[in-house]
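Example record

The entry below shows one chain as it appears in the dataset: sequence first, then structure tokens.
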Amino acid sequence: MQSSSLKIQSRESRPGHFELALDGRLDSVAAERLEDVLERLLESGAKRIALDMKELSFIASRGISVVIGTYKRLRSDGGELIMSNMQGPVQKVFSITAALPRESIFASEAEADSYFAAIQRKERERG
């Protein structure tokens, strides 16, 4: 599946340390692409992945899942995932998901995406 909604630029700053710049919308299709990129990095022995989210304007529930899954996997292997430069709407979604209980509170991924999209829209309007 191809998506033009997200551009991913990756570079290795030193062995095992990668920086990824995300530009655009991290929707469900783009999340699959990002997951593939991250999986290749993990398989190559990545110990540190830094996600620059300065140009990331939207994140769907699938994108959140990919980021959190990568974080957990790196942490369990003694590595780290760093996220920087989050725009307000994306940062708000991450702060809300951190506060959610471990159990699913949404009936479907579509319901979660609708909820997160509304939050991000309100944050953009605020400013």
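Notes for this example: The helical segments are 28-43, 61-76, 88-99, 109-126. The first helix runs from residue 28 to 43.
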